[in-house]
Amino acid sequence: MGQKAISFMKLVKRDKYLLIMFAPVFVYYVIFMYIPMPGVLIAFKNFTPGHGIFGGDWVGLQWFAQFVHSIYFWRLLRNTFLLAFLPLLFGFGIPILFAVCIVEIKNQVFKRFAQTITYLPHFISTVVVAGMLINFLSPADGIVNTLLARFGFEKVNFMMEAGWFRTIFTSSEIWQSFGFSSIIYIAAIMSIDPEMYDSGKIDGVSKFQELWHLTLPSIKPTIVILLLLSLGGIMSVGFEKVYLLYNGATYETADVLSTYVYRMGIEGQNYGFATAVGLFNSIITFVLVFTVNRITRRMTNMSLW
Length: 305
Description:
ABC transporter permease subunit; single chain
């Protein structure tokens, strides 16, 4: 036992700087993710503020049944899935292609400029992005409607039409994330042995063949892992942006599980029901990640675990 303790302390001393860097992340997850876990009991109780999470009468699966039989159930599931899946469907390949293009650029000044411009949106506050979208799409003096009027088209009140919400949300998500997401792919491409490219040039392969038969297979593990991580959050649509952009007129295509939980829990003060909906969302996400991970492991022999 003493020898194991000594070995452990040696490892801690060796990796002390890495552990210091990891400490804030560890503390964050312990405080905000693990300590609140007993609160899921509220999903099975008739919770009343002031009585604590262990107070109140047990109601079993009453809140879950109420949600499943609700008229909003399928709408919420559809919207949550689509608003998470559409950015993944249309945007997952963009960082990969962008990373390939960046690596091929020889002009270092232009390369740094392009990377800086595409990374910046990731660091813009969601509140600012939502404000920009609302201003740009304003039917009164927004730049988009101004251009439409210039070319003889009728102005469109984008933010009040449910049919436009998914397009606006998806395009803004891709714009915000593709540059920053490309960093990992750039690093993966840069780690490929240059001799493999030299051999390909000797064999007379084209740029497309080089991309398809050398670059993409070499970064395949990175692509698979990031895809699995993206699928893990497919039922966890960003609450902030949806809440800032949607309104009563766009509920049909914009209302998702997280915004519904907020309205029912915080605004409606129905804490037990809101907790049940949130727990239901977490269970669906877990099942989805577990299933996709198993399928990926069988098909590609790569997985998260």
